[in-house]
Design a protein that fits this description.
Elements: H1 21-28, E1 32-36, E2 39-42, H2 44-63, E3 67-68, E4 74-76, H3 77-83, E5 94-97, E6 103-106, H4 111-121, E7 130-139, E8 154-164, H5 167-187, E9 192-196, E10 207-213, E11 219-224, H6 242-253, E12 257-259, H7 265-269, E13 276-291, H8 295-298, E14 301-303, E15 309-311, E16 313-319, H9 321-331, E17 333-334, E18 337-338, E19 349-353, H10 359-374, E20 379-382, H11 388-398, E21 402-406, H12 408-413, E22 415-420, E23 426-430, H13 431-437
Parallel strand pairs: 3-7, 19-20, 19-21
Antiparallel strand pairs: 1-2, 4-6, 5-6, 7-8, 8-16, 9-10, 10-13, 11-12, 11-13, 13-16, 14-15, 17-18, 21-22, 22-23
Helix pairs in contact: 1-9, 2-5, 2-9, 5-6
Length: about 450
């Protein structure tokens, strides 16, 4: 992509309405445009990041055996009346009527709708286990939306829903999602720590929030330092092996970890001082088992091996890709701008032409642009006529992992400068060496 033809509305000044660093940098870098309180348009640069985040989430859900569907944003109130939630949900639900005066709503979540889909088709335990997920826009009318996309009213959500014959099956489904989340966040360049969350009236211990540590986190969290070195399951993880998956979950839930709400001072005091880690944290995912909370009132049941009907045991599993992008920025930035993990960066490399119009610079940049694209890399070519300082500032602000800097002297000598955004390290490379290093992406 040539920057001269790209839509990248950079802001030079910090927006006054931005309270936290991710909101500020997302506005300045032309990632989002705020349209109303808690409502944002995703501009080209941001949409590229959002697509890459969603793709990683999708790949790991698929790997764990979940099946992707797509449900509507507008839902019938009748489904929510069946579950008993329509009147109880509160003002966060955006209630509307269609032209026939039927009660509708903009979905804040999809338990009712996915349960209705399940009960319409599944009759036997032989069709279980089943996990259905989608990546869809949600709306919750927050009383005070703030912090940009971190706490917005309209947001993108990956929500998955598992259906099993009994608690043991539901626990196995829960464990698969637990391990899937570990892999997902690691691939996104984040170190997420699973922390036991409140299960409310359901009881039990099958509820975890996945927290990343960040100075600007919303809440205080407490955990054992062992979490910083626990091995994340690899691509060869067998999600069909319940014992293997359960062992991974045990390893990741044995050390102490708690948010403010679940913190136990007695348990905390038993941990040696050197092993304690207290920091700010940002929630990036939540998994939760709720049994027959929805299946029972909505009649979602299957015939079991005993010939009797059983209300299915369910769980839900959420990741907010839009919120997640803000969390990534909160955890990975410096005074100059965003530092994207390579897996979700909008472009892999930016080629900076220091003197547009110089024959050698133009020729070399075109050669490098073509070579990087041929190697399967996403490349942004800064062919604009702005000054060098502005080009460098833009490249740092938008956080592209690698910068290839082409100036007149280097071009004449057959050399370029390569800068790694994450560390600021610069290295002069011969053109032949750089071209030879370009292999297929991944």
């Amino acid at each position: 992509m040539r920057l001269s033809r790209y839509f990248l509305p950079i802001l030079k000044e910090n927006p006054r309405e931005a309270e936290i660093v991710s909101h500020r940098l997302m506005l300045r870098a032309g990632i989002v445009r705020q349209q109303a309180a808690g409502s944002f348009s995703w501009l080209p640069l941001g949409k590229r990041v959002l697509d890459k985040v969603c793709q990683i989430v999708r790949e790991e859900q698929n790997r764990a055996g979940a099946l992707e569907i797509l449900m509507p944003t507008i839902q019938s109130a009748e489904l929510w009346r069946e579950s008993g939630r329509y009147d109880d949900y509160g003002k966060e639900m955006l209630r509307i009527k269609d032209r026939h005066e039927r009660d509708m709503l903009f979905g804040p979540t999809n338990e009712e709708m996915v349960t209705e889909i399940f009960r319409s088709y599944v009759r036997s335990y032989k069709d279980l286990p089943l996990n259905l997920y989608h990546i869809q826009w949600k709306f919750r009318d927050e009383v005070r939306p703030r912090f940009g996309v971190m706490r917005s009213r309209e947001f993108l959500m990956k929500d998955a829903y598992s259906f099993d014959l009994d608690f043991e099956g539901a626990k196995a489904a829960y464990n698969r999602m637990f391990v899937s989340y570990l892999r997902t966040f690691t691939r996104l360049g984040l170190q997420a720590i699973p922390m036991r969350a409140d299960t409310g009236p359901i009881g039990g211990d099958l509820s975890h929030e996945f927290i990343i540590l960040a100075d600007t986190g919303e809440s205080q969290v407490f955990c054992h330092r062992d979490f910083l070195s626990l091995p994340v399951p690899g691509e060869d993880t067998d999600f069909g092996n319940d014992a293997e998956i359960g062992g991974i979950v045990r390893e990741w839930t044995t050390p102490y970890a708690a948010t403010d709400e679940m913190h136990d001072e007695t348990a905390w005091a038993s941990i040696p001082d050197g092993d304690r880690l207290s920091a700010r944290g940002i929630e990036v995912g939540h998994i939760f088992h709720f049994g027959d909370k929805y299946s029972k009132p909505m009649g979602a049941k299957v015939t079991g091996p005993d010939g009797k009907d059983h209300f299915v045991s369910m769980g839900s599993y959420g990741i907010g890709p839009t919120r997640l992008i803000a969390a990534i920025i909160e955890a990975s930035h410096d005074e100059n701008g965003i530092i994207w993990p390579e897996s979700v960066a909008p472009f892999d490399v930016v080629i900076i032409n220091m003197k547009v119009g110089d024959a050698d610079c133009d020729r070399l940049c075109e050669q490098l642009y073509a070579a990087h694209r041929a190697a399967g890399l996403d490349v942004l070519y800064d062919d604009t006529d702005q000054r060098a300082g502005g080009k460098f500032a833009t490249a740092d602000l938008i956080g592209i992992p690698w910068q290839v800097i082409v100036g007149p002297r280097g071009a004449a000598a057959g050399e370029v400068e390569v800068k790694r955004r994450a560390t600021g390290e610069r290295d002069t490379k011969k053109i032949e060496t750089l071209l030879a290093s370009l292999g297929p992406k991944g």
